[in-house]
Amino acid sequence: MSKFWSKVVHGLTPYTPGEQVQMPGLVKLNTNENPYGPSPKAIAAMQEAAGDSLRKYSDPSNTVLKDAVARRFGLTREQVFVGNSSDEVLAHTFHALLKHDLPLLTPDISYSFYPTYCSLYGIDAVYVPLNERFEIDVADYAQPCGAIILANPNAPTGIALPLAQIEALLVAHPDQVVVIDEAYVDFGAQSAAALLGRYDNLLVIQTLSKSRSLAGLRVGFALGHPDLIAGLERVKNSFNCYPLGQVQQAGAVAALDDVAYMEQTSQAIIASRAWLTAQMQALGFDVLPSQANFIFTRHPRHDGAQLAAALRERAILVRHFKAARIDQFLRVTIGTDEECAKLVDALKAILS
Ligand SMILES: *Cc1c(COP(=O)(O)O)cnc(C)c1O
């Protein structure tokens, strides 16, 4: 607390990211980082870009990167917004598109940055409970609202909604923006990007942090009708005209163009997820059906916080949320097969 703070600062609840601990031999399964490194083509492109041209400001409209995203999704440049991480794209989205007279609808259990942005931008939100299977039921969103935001697959549950359900939401709310945060979509879910031509109220947000293994590069993007994108551009250009540097853009373009590498590494993670799920179930854990690069799991007879602490003593980090309804769960990132096996061995020892 300080008397020098602006009034709004006193009321903020900042997001708490998973810890970034440095420790030899640590098995780090707490922040959904990709265990396979970025595309070698992305690394090469960044090395190439790190030269004398850094003297100049980067392109404020990021056309090269927008075109790479547009190519990937069969869209035009005017349907693409890019930013320094999808967290930044989300922040601009809350600011530009989600503050209305009626409340924003979002699930009670979802990405915990959403309530943080609501408090930052003074947005009134209604937190719609997930059903008893921890699924989003789109029928629960049939209520007056100013806008809707969902993560699909949802986080931290990992459960994905089929495209038909997203479409039902878009049809039911033609005068509200529906934002779908697809941070994990490449691990087995269907992207709502396929619906963009038909719905002017849809905004899809993705990141290069998860399936492109570039969490440290900080690149995210949004796809939507040019009018939505123009709103985001107005906010971005009132905040920072150059959020992406040249090195960052060069890496992002090469990563987006290397589709084969992304698909191959994502398939490896999907296979490890199936193996880990079966192993956890054999140990008596309930595992929610995940389409993401993590699983959300609880043991009917062992406390979640205690399990997380016992794993930590064995140098294995997983994420535990002290939140209503989910305080018995652990969110476990899918690591390499070796890391998944270490986790299973540790759990066997802890449970016995
Ligand atoms: C990881 C994550 C993000 C943020 O990704 P960055 O681009 O690294 O900021 C956004 N939404 C959800 C649901 C996530 O899990």
Automatic annotation (TrEMBL):
<feature type="modified residue" description="N6-(pyridoxal phosphate)lysine">
    <location>
        <position position="210"/>
    </location>
</feature>
<comment type="subunit">
    <text>Homodimer.</text>
</comment>
<dbReference type="InterPro" id="IPR001917">
    <property type="entry name" value="Aminotrans_II_pyridoxalP_BS"/>
</dbReference>
<feature type="domain" description="Aminotransferase class I/classII large">
    <location>
        <begin position="26"/>
        <end position="347"/>
    </location>
</feature>
<dbReference type="InterPro" id="IPR005861">
    <property type="entry name" value="HisP_aminotrans"/>
</dbReference>
<protein>
    <recommendedName>
        <fullName>Histidinol-phosphate aminotransferase</fullName>
        <ecNumber>2.6.1.9</ecNumber>
    </recommendedName>
</protein>
<dbReference type="GO" id="GO:0030170">
    <property type="term" value="F:pyridoxal phosphate binding"/>
</dbReference>
<comment type="similarity">
    <text>Belongs to the class-II pyridoxal-phosphate-dependent aminotransferase family. Histidinol-phosphate aminotransferase subfamily.</text>
</comment>
<dbReference type="InterPro" id="IPR015424">
    <property type="entry name" value="PyrdxlP-dep_Trfase"/>
</dbReference>
<keyword id="KW-0368">Histidine biosynthesis</keyword>
<dbReference type="InterPro" id="IPR004839">
    <property type="entry name" value="Aminotransferase_I/II_large"/>
</dbReference>
<dbReference type="Pfam" id="PF00155">
    <property type="entry name" value="Aminotran_1_2"/>
</dbReference>
<dbReference type="GO" id="GO:0004400">
    <property type="term" value="F:histidinol-phosphate transaminase activity"/>
</dbReference>
<dbReference type="InterPro" id="IPR015421">
    <property type="entry name" value="PyrdxlP-dep_Trfase_major"/>
</dbReference>
<keyword id="KW-0663">Pyridoxal phosphate</keyword>
<keyword id="KW-0028">Amino-acid biosynthesis</keyword>
<keyword id="KW-0032">Aminotransferase</keyword>
<comment type="pathway">
    <text>Amino-acid biosynthesis; L-histidine biosynthesis; L-histidine from 5-phospho-alpha-D-ribose 1-diphosphate: step 7/9.</text>
</comment>
<dbReference type="InterPro" id="IPR015422">
    <property type="entry name" value="PyrdxlP-dep_Trfase_small"/>
</dbReference>
<keyword id="KW-0808">Transferase</keyword>
<dbReference type="InterPro" id="IPR050106">
    <property type="entry name" value="HistidinolP_aminotransfase"/>
</dbReference>
<dbReference type="GO" id="GO:0000105">
    <property type="term" value="P:L-histidine biosynthetic process"/>
</dbReference>
